[in-house]
Amino acid sequence: MTSDDTTLDASAPWLEVDAVIDDPRTRIVVCCGSGGVGKTTTAAALGVRAAERGRKVVVLTIDPARRLAQSMGISELDNVPRRVKGVDEAAGGELHAMMLDMKRTFDEIVEGHADAERARAILENPFYQSLSAGFAGTQEYMAMEKLGQLRANDEWDLIVVDTPPSRSALDFLDAPKRLGSFLDGKFIRILMAPAKVGGRAGMKFLNVGMSMMTGTLSKLMGGQLLRDVQTFVAAMDTMFGGFRTRADATYRLLQAPGTAFLVVAAPERDALREAAYFVERLAAEQMPLAGLVLNRVHGSGAAQLSAERALAAAEALTETLVADGDPAADPEAGEAGDPSDGISPNSPSADPSSPVAENLEPGGIVDLDGGKNGSRTAGGLSPAATAEHAASPSASAAQLAAGLLRLHAERMQVLARERRTRDRFTALHPEVPVAEVAALPGDVHDLTGLRAIGDRLALRPGDAGT
Amino acid sequence: MSRLHVVSGKGGTGKTTVAAALALALATEGRRTLLVEVEGRQGIAQLFETEAFPYEERKIAVAPGGGEVHALAIDAERALLDYLQMFYKLGSAGRALKKLGAIDFATTIAPGLRDVLLTGKACEAVRRKDKSGAFVYDAVVMDAPPTGRVTRFLNVNDEVAGLAKIGPIHNQAQAVMRVLKSPETAVHLVTLLEEMPVQETADGIAELRAANIPVGGVVINMTRPALLDNGDLDIAARGARTGIAKALSQAGLGGARRGGHADRLIDPLLEQAREHAERVELERAEHAELTALGLPTYELGLLPEGVDLAGLYGLARDLRRQGPI
Ligand SMILES: Nc1ncnc2c1ncn2[C@@H]1O[C@H](COP(=O)(O)OP(=O)(O)OP(=O)(O)O)[C@@H](O)[C@H]1O
Ligand SMILES: Nc1ncnc2c1ncn2[C@@H]1O[C@H](COP(=O)(O)OP(=O)(O)OP(=O)(O)O)[C@@H](O)[C@H]1O
Ligand SMILES: [Mg+2]
Ligand SMILES: [Mg+2]
Are B270 and A407 in contact (CB under 8 A)? Predict the structure, then answer.
């Protein structure tokens, strides 16, 4: 799978994204990862790509950026998938997308599982209203619920799921269980106990505990809240078991062979640490991991020039400019360092360097200070640009070159850091296939941007270049 | 001067880092600050390179000039048990409640109760006085939940006082709200110069204001210097290419003629410059949007090698240099 030209360790296999989304057996792709790493973007990009490669896809997004939602035509929360316009359907595919509305999803479960009167009692209960609107974990539970519904519809041949912006990727797996175990749990049964077990022999102990507890709770929370909770619980009675069963069914769906988890991470220490936890957890849960998407990775088309060397060269250029205002004064100045260090194999000494000096125009350089004073940029950010009007091309060119070199040095430092963090992950999990997505200079907020991400996702690492 | 500084922001923008730097910055000149975290992640311990701390306040750093930073990871369950113990002497009943899942219920499921407990503990630290009647902490800095949840988190009054209309939880919520809505409190938002965090900052400020919670400043984190911009690219486009090749060659990077080493560097270097310039433009637009919010702004530069303890002290210095926060 890997070739000589990949930048990855031979031990890190390539995650072939196209193979995953083209495989008709892949029915669900789950994009997870810690906050802000690009889960939503990756999910949407995969949706577009799979649809344009001929699959009938639905993407379930959660809290997408406003402009992205608008450009996909899903900024209205109506909790059903909408067909996305502007997708190339020539290959026979389609893209549908939706944005999760967690309260509505919760309401729909209630409405679907209780008669009208009971449903109304639940929906109007203040405790239910708080629970459905905001309890940390409701979003995760409802995302699972919606996934279950989409899958049950069997209308799409591929479902791509985004996961909520939680701190930890693990929340997606843990939160539904927490809510489910509360709704089906001991505590709820005890709250309902007065109605159910009152007076029955053998329940005396429980009753004592119960009354002590409800007493305490009502002292603590105030009687009203406790009554609200009890009314809610009583009204939900018929649905209990239902929640646990549903959560379990979706959990099993996630373990099925047609599911592929993609763990998205930025090439940063914290994000990759989270990714490693998640990979281990998926293995423990026997959930199928397709691989790691390393998002917003930096590359360089001039990687042969090291950061150190670029900085030294920039320094040399600036020094000559500042020192004597004449970079051409000493034709040998630039040759001080070992030119073959960090640069491509051809020997630079073969290049004639004297014509360079001859062609420079020292005359322009004396105007440098004038150029500086006529600062154009408000923040004074751009010395090279300010030199432009007054100075000759060579003065500004020298400054520009120095700027380019500094920029390059910064880029190379980023590259090195990203590589180190990535290698640490690979050393820990050499079996996990990896795809790399280059960082785009701007945000991703339309189909064109999503296609660009999709193209990069499908590239073999190392071919990514810049 | 506010005494409770709540630090929020989009996930991953640097809330924990900035909260810690602020606690350090506010602790100079012999002052004492408390840094609290509420999400049970031991982020502060990691940052200060100490082991996870138990549920107690302890000194974790000394600030220049003899100040002290103390830290506390507030745990909702422990806070509830302490609270029950304090008001009801419910030691063993607390354990029984725990067994039944009631504590779990109260601290993780019951909407808002958890938040009352967490903010309640922080407000208690703000108001705490020693025997001489002086405040124990000159300032309390909270590493708060992200922007999307922070207003709900702080606005426990609406959440809980509405649900629990009487009783100690109701009273506690009321007391907490008195602190949180007073000028004693300031909520600061951390952002990056990127579209989503800036948008979230604007939305968050509007929400906080609507809830009458005082907003402090905006901390722009991980800023990078603009090395080049579109103006420079214009020059390059206007035929400075040969000049650049010569300059590169001059600096010892190989031959300037077509196909020479220096010449071959130009396209990739210019491509990087174009990307950089695009980002600089984007950042300027985001910066303008933040300025338009009309709040004090503070900037912290990106530390290229990440944040270690020395870096954290540096960030604290940078914050102080930019005036009172
Ligand atoms: N490869 C990339 N290049 C450039 N920008 C990117 C890239 N991937 C994502 N982004 C941008 O990063 C920001 C965060 O991305 P996204 O919303 O997909 O993250 P997320 O993991 O879903 O975040 P959250 O945890 O908040 O849901 C967006 O503004 C997006 O446009
Ligand atoms: N000024 C900075 N320079 C370099 N790295 C930084 C800077 N500020 C924060 N970071 C790094 O960015 C990452 C996120 O920072 P931090 O944990 O403080 O963010 P957070 O908002 O608290 O995140 P979360 O939402 O996960 O709680 C950390 O790895 C941190 O070291
Ligand atoms: Mg998202
Ligand atoms: Mg944090």
Answer: no
Question: Domain map of chain A by residue range?
Answer: 5-299+439-458, 307-416
Could B247 and A402 be called an inter-chain contact, meaning their C-beta atoms sit closer than 8 Å?
yes
Give, for ligand 1, the residue of B196, B200, B203, B286 to mutate: max count of ligand atoms closer than 8 Å to Cβ: B196
Helices marked H in chain B? 15-26, 43-47, 76-88, 91-100, 102-104, 113-127, 147-154, 156, 162-163, 168-180, 195-210, 230-235, 241-250, 261-291, 309-321
Name residues with Cβ closer than 5 Å to ligand 4, which is an ion: B 15-16, 43
pTM listed for this prediction? 0.81
Per-residue model confidence as pLDDT tens digits over B132-167: 999 999 999 999 999 988 998 898 766 666 666 677
Contact B123, B83 (CB under 8 A): no
pLDDT of residue B52: 81
Q: Which residue owns the Cα nearest ligand 2 atom 25?
A: B11
Would you tell me how many other CB atoms lie within 10 Å of the CB of residue B205? 19
Assigned CATH topology for domain A5-299+439-458: Rossmann fold (3.40.50)
Residue A235 sits at the vertex; the CA angle it makes with A229 and A240, to the nearest 5 degrees, is 95
Residue A365 clears pLDDT 60, i.e. is over it = no
Q: What tens digit of pLDDT does each residue of A102-152 get?
A: 889 889 888 887 788 888 888 888 778 877 776 666 788 888 889 988 998
Residue A231: pLDDT band by 50, 70, 90 thresholds?
confident
Is residue B245 over pLDDT 70? yes
What's the sign of the alpha-carbon dihedral B94, B96, B102, B108?
positive
Residue A182: its chain B contacts at CB < 8 A?
101, 104-105, 108-109
Choose the mutation target among B16, B92, B253 for the interface with A, i.e. most A CBs under 10 Å: B253
